[in-house]
Amino acid sequence: MSKIGLFVGSQTGKTEAAAEEIQEGLGGDGVVTIHKIEEAENSDFEKYDNIIIGCPTWDIGELQADWDGYFEELDNINFSGKKVAYFGTGDQEGYPDNFMDAIGILETKISELGGSTVGNWPNEGYEFNESKALKNGKFIGLALDDDNQSELTEKRIKTWVAQLKQEFGV
Ligand SMILES: Cc1cc2nc3c(=O)[nH]c(=O)nc-3n(C[C@H](O)[C@H](O)[C@H](O)COP(=O)(O)O)c2cc1C
């Protein structure tokens, strides 16, 4: 079994494309198994000690639709002892008061359920007003903005993946 489970929801494909790049960077499908959240079950989460969560923000500060559908079900998963990393895509110019909110909402929930967060990310190089993903002056996970900064995405993913290798110990 692979060492990391990556759970992703995506409406227009950007977060899914990032998931594939993250998987590739971490060593391919022998290391990371991608689960689309619309097909996932609780037992899929329970298989892994290392989890990556990918979710874009939609509808002004909301979770992507399939993640929204799974949100209550998360209460039935025991995340204690699991390391959890988060990434999302968003639009800081179009939605500066809600940039990346979705991963902030998921991180708050999963931390309450016992997960320990890894993969914090600096907020330098972005311009926005507010984000639920910002805690203690950092993003709780990787913030990607393909709507305005697509030229930075590849480098950001590479840097974050190197950090995750250390923090997951894979
Ligand atoms: C109607 C609409 C609402 C959006 N709301 C937000 C938002 O509140 N915050 C944000 O950061 N991005 C927001 N976005 C931008 C999307 O999150 C961004 O395009 C993202 O990359 C889409 O990811 P996906 O292709 O994986 O679905 C919104 C986009 C649309 C079209």
UniProtKB/TrEMBL annotation:
Molecular function per GO: electron transfer activity; FMN binding
Known function: Low-potential electron donor to a number of redox enzymes.
All copies of domain Flavodoxin-like, residue ranges: 4-165
Cofactor(s) the record lists: FMN
UniProt-recorded name of the protein: Flavodoxin
Family matches, as Pfam families: Flavodoxin_1 (PF00258)
Keyword tags: Electron transport, Flavoprotein, FMN, Transport
Statement: the UniProt record of this protein carries the keyword Electron transport: yes
Record has Disulfide bond as a keyword: no
PANTHER family: FLAVODOXIN 1, FLAVODOXIN 2
Species for this entry: Moorena bouillonii PNG
Family the UniProt entry places it in: Belongs to the flavodoxin family.
Stored InterPro entries: Flavodoxin, Flavodoxin/NO_synth, Flavodoxin_lc, Flavoprotein-like_sf
